[in-house]
Amino acid sequence: MGKRYYCDFCDKSIPNNTQAVKKHNEGSQHQAIRNSFYSKYKNLETILEEEREKNPCVKFFSHGYCNFGELCRSSHRTQEQKQYLEDLYRLECHKKVKLEQEKRKNSTPKKMKIMCEKYLSECLNNKELLAIENYLPKYFIPKKLKILNLPFLPPSLAPPNFKDFINYEPNSWTGAPN
Known about the structure:
Helix content is about 55%, strand content about 5%. The chain has a two-stranded antiparallel ribbon with strand order 1-2. The chain is built from seven helices and two strands; from the N terminus they run ββααααααα.
C-alpha cells in the first residue's frame, strides 16, 4: 500500500498525490474545519474589521439558523454584540495607551541623561582600556605556576604592569649600534 497524506484538520488520510491533496484542501468541508480552527486565534481588531464589512444574515435573523454556519459571508452578530466588540476594542486600545504613557513617565529625560552619561563614560573607559591593552604585548603566566600560587615570582616570570612600560626603551635586536 502506498504512502498516504494525513490532514490534521479533518482527521482523515487520503492518497498522497498532488491532485488528491489539492482536491481535499479545496473542499468545502476542509475549508470549514480549517476556518473554524483559525478563527479561535484571531485578535479582536481582525474580528471587528470583518464584522464591520459584513451585512446581517437574513436567514439567520429570520429563522434563527443558517446552513452555512461559520462559512456564511454575512454576519450572525446582533447590533448589541457588535457594540460590545467595539467597546472591548476601545478598552484594549485605552489600556495600551495607558501602558505607553506609564513607560514614558518612568523614563524621564533626567534619567535618560544620566543613563546616557553613564553609558558614554563606560564606553570611553572601555575604549581607553582596549587601546592600552592592544598597545601592550600580552604575557601569560604558565598554568602550573598559577596553580602553585607563588607570591614572589622571579622577575622574568612575573606579568608586566603598565608602570613597567612607562620609561621602557626597547633594545635594537638588529645588531645596529644605538
